[in-house]
């Protein structure tokens, strides 16, 4: 999941006339002219746009798939233990900014879980009241209940 929306313009550039022409050539239905018996190109009628039928065909095509089609094929041996595979995980999740001296927030837990993280280490330390803390570093971190609630509502609760 991309955090910087500016990358979308690089990875998925906006359509231009060349892109529209490609879509027209690939998905515009060709009909025979009743008078001449020749194929007519509807794209010539709509030089700067798509007909509704062409647009529909493009939307339903592999060119407009919501995922990369080459990544749907299983190309690895998937019979290994889970620990042999890459797991999307997070470290120092609660930190906003620098590792030392940075602020912390429970909201970051929600964001990484919504972004796809499914493995997170939450360290806690008992000092009268449970707080989330990273080993010996003193950070002002939200309470244990707030952290567990965020994880439950965003991660575990969503998957059910």
From TrEMBL:
Keyword annotations of the record: Hydrolase, Lipid degradation, Lipid metabolism, Transducer
EC number per UniProt: 3.1.4.11
Any Pfam family: PI-PLC-X
Catalytic activity: a 1,2-diacyl-sn-glycero-3-phospho-(1D-myo-inositol-4,5-bisphosphate) + H2O = 1D-myo-inositol 1,4,5-trisphosphate + a 1,2-diacyl-sn-glycerol + H(+)
The organism's place on the tree of life at top rank: Eukaryota
Residue intervals of the Phosphatidylinositol-specific phospholipase C X domain: 76-142
Protein name: Phosphoinositide phospholipase C
Naturally occurring in which organism (per UniProt): Schistocephalus solidus (Tapeworm)
């Amino acid at each position: 999941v991309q955090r910087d929306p500016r990358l979308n313009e690089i990875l998925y550039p906006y359509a231009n006339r060349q892109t529209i022409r490609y879509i027209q050539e690939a998905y515009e239905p060709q009909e025979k002219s009743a008078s001449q018996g020749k194929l007519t190109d509807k794209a010539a009628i709509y030089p700067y746009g798509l007909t509704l039928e062409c647009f529909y065909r493009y939307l339903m095509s592999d060119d407009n798939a919501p995922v990369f089609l080459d990544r749907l094929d299983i190309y690895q041996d998937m019979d290994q233990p889970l620990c042999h595979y890459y797991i999307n995980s997070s470290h120092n999740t609660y930190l906003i900014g620098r590792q030392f001296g940075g602020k912390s927030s429970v909201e970051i837990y929600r964001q990484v879980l919504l972004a796809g993280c499914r493995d997170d280490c939450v360290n806690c330390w008992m000092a009268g009241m449970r707080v989330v803390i990273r080993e010996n570093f003193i950070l002002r971190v939200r309470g244990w209940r707030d952290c567990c609630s965020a994880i439950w509502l965003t991660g575990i609760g969503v998957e059910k």
